[in-house]
Amino acid sequence: MIPTLNEERNLPHVFAKLPSMISEVIIVDGGSRDRTVEVARQLRPDAVIVQQTRTGKGNALACGFAACTGDIIVMIDADGSTDPAEIPLFVDKLVRGDHFVKGSRFSHGGHSHDITRLRKAGNDGLNLVVNILFRTHFTDLCYGYNAFWRSVVPALDLPDVKLPRPADGSKLWGDGFEIETMINIRAVAEKLKVGEVGSTEHERIHGESNLNTFRDGFRVLRTIFSEFGRMRSRRRAGLRPFVEGLRLIAAPAAPQQRGRDQAAGSVTPVAPRHATDPRRDGLANRAVRRPDDVNAVRARGFEDRPTQDINMLRSRSSLDD
Fold it and tell me: Which residues are within 8 A (CB) of 91 and not within 5 positions of it... i.e. 6 or more apart?
């Protein structure tokens, strides 16, 4: 799923690196004034083009999520900063048991060619705040490369795409750039099994970024405290974490796995339980593969399989355990 706004020169690079395993490409356009939509259709005739209903990246993502039909949703950027060739690493983590996988530029072999020292310092500080408040071990909070099972989208509780834009021209909470921080935090707050994958961030190929270090840094900080208050309010109201009500239609776990889960009184996860359940101690799972292992992942068959074959992969993973 790719949100776009005037990215016609960047799309050829992004589309060229999409793995063959991808069976559905959702392009969410925010009212581009160039040939973004036409170029997307030329490059990928089967691409689904969605026009976002309001403004802001958050609304674009929500519109894209609503249009997705595959088992797995992967968020990448249209400017070339995120590498589509890393998608098999995210899929591998999901099939092996995580509900939500986020990219990290600063651990697990990740790297950034774009971040400045000032922004890195700000990211480290914001990471520290989140890790203290939510008892996580995130290594990269402000990065928009994420993947998750479509069945957990309701846990993110994004604004309804059908709601009108406020009359004063402002954005609904969750419609703006706060979305990337918000969904990472909500995944943890709803006790989803969150993993990290090392990712390399590249410089934007064409065009200029709208990022403002101080303005956006304060927006992220506001988001952190707002989401912390939201989580506490939901707990006081007696609302159970989303994961406790998650019922799945994946292939059944192996008999020995079912026995362990029943003994622990746990809900069967999207895929067989990961050897290191990141929610047992409240920490995000950090035992992941490095980006330079992507060829090994592809060799195991993920690169050439469409997403419709995910159930077969889950079943095979269960038998391997």
Answer: 21, 72, 74, 147, 302, 310
Helices and strands, number each (H, E), in the chain:
11, 9
Please choose, from the candidates 59, 62, 219, 26, the residue with its C-alpha nearest in 3D space to the C-alpha of residue 141: 219
Q: What share of the chain is helix, strand, coil (3-state, %, to 5)?
A: 40, 10, 50
Contacts of 31 (CB under 8 A, 6+ apart): 5, 51, 52
Cα atoms in the 13 Å half-sphere on the side-chain side of 160? 4
pLDDT tens digits, residue range 212-255? 567 777 888 999 999 999 999 999 999 999 999 876 444 344 44
**Strand, coil or helix: what is 101?**
strand
CA distance 180 to 202: 18
Q: Report the candidate in 69, 8, 19 with the shortest Cα–Cα distance to residue 297.
A: 19
- What's the rounded Cα separation, in Å, for the pair 108 and 213? 25
Name the pTM for this structure: 0.78
219 backbone dihedrals φ, ψ, rounded to 5°: -65, -40
**Confidence at 209, pLDDT banded by 50, 70, 90:** low
* CA dist., res. 113 & res. 53, Å (int): 33
Could you give the CA distance from residue 121 to residue 58 in angstroms, rounded to a whole number? Answer: 25
Helix (H, G, I), strand (E, B) or coil at 299: helix
